[in-house]
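Sample intake sheet
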Amino acid sequence: MNLETAIASVRGAPLDPVAHLALGDAYAAAGRPVPALACWRTARSLAAAAPDSRVAAAAGERLAGVDGTALLAAPALRDHNRFYRLRVLAAALREAAGRDDFSVVDIGGGDGALALHLPHTEYILVEPGTNGLSGENLPFPPGSADVVAACHVLEHVPPGDRDRFLDSLRRIARREVVLLGPFRVPGTLYRRRLQMVLDLTGAPWAREHLDCGLPDLQELEEYAARRGVSCRHAPVGAMPTALLATLVSHYAHLAGRAGELARLHDYLNAIAPDRHVNERLPGAYLVRLSP
């Protein structure tokens, strides 16, 4: 089964573990081990809920043949901005759940690399570009996951749709919804910064950030007040570090010296996450919504 057909099958039967298992196989056949692992993890989690021991066993066999540590060592996953945000998010999810073996739905999780940082969880990926599923139309029953995560997603949701998006996430979370992403920080000229990144690199994400506009913390606090839920937030990372890491990576690729980037990323990744935080110029915020 090719990828396009496999994604269509998942979209048509989003709770079918067999469809997710087949999609993982299609990614593996295409030489894309990270989304393959995420889809197999999703298949195993859905099979456990079914329950379907046959599919769970098949997914377990496939996962046993994958070295997650080796995958994390791949250059794309060592990129500092990506590594840092997933590392911080994984720690926050463990704290929210209160244990290592919890269930999590990863909203807009791209290729599912968060699963590599959470090896002991019941992991489910929701990503339009990877398996055809969307955070706005979650097919899962209410309270079906301990925590729900959305990393660098809210800023891609148009402002008028954000309440509905957050309601969708909260509906399936038993404990917390954990958001991590960029927010407006007064005095930092965020639109000028994003326009510069777009002009210099052509990054599609920068265009989407500009089109949708970054959310601000007051927006989340007002949402929480309307819904009668708790909203806690904390600064994450440092905007200058994130910006420079983005531009250095871009120009290293243009110069044909991308192989040397690993040394820079490994240095930054070796520093404890809390040492990266600049409270006046954070790269992002971690927001936790809970009853």
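Comment: Residues 124 and 257 are 36 Å apart (CA to CA). The chain has a mean pLDDT of 95.
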